[in-house]
Amino acid sequence: MVPLLLVLLLALILFGAGFAVKVLWWVAVAVLVLWLLGFVMRSTGPSGGRGRWYRW
After folding, report:
1. Burial 8-43 (b: 16+ CB within 10 A, else e)
2. Distance between CA atoms of 27 and 25, rounded to whole angstroms?
3. Each residue of 5-14: pLDDT tens digit?
4. pLDDT, tens digit, 9 for 90 and up, residues 6-42
């Protein structure tokens, strides 16, 4: 009985981890798209040139 419960617990943990990793991949893709949009559509500086697109 205990080995069966351990196998079921392991399957549940691996399924949960796989789902979390898939969600994190979609979040990473969304952040990449936002970063690329910010890089392409950055505003011009006072001198007419494009300055740094980041604030740090």
Report:
1. eeeeeeeeeeeeeeeeeeeeeeeeeeeeeeeeeeee
2. 5
3. 888 888 888 8
4. 888 888 888 888 888 888 889 999 999 988 888 777 7
Give the 3-state secondary structure of residue 13. helix
Backbone angles phi, psi at 46, to 5 degrees: -65, -30
**Position of tokens 């399957």?**
11
SS3 50: strand
Question: What's the CA gap between 56 and 51, in Å, rounded?
Answer: 12
Nearest to 12, CA basis, from 56, 36, 4: 4
pTM of the model: 0.55
Collapse the DSSP code of 44 into the 3-class scheme (helix H, G, I; strand E, B; otherwise coil) and give the result.
strand
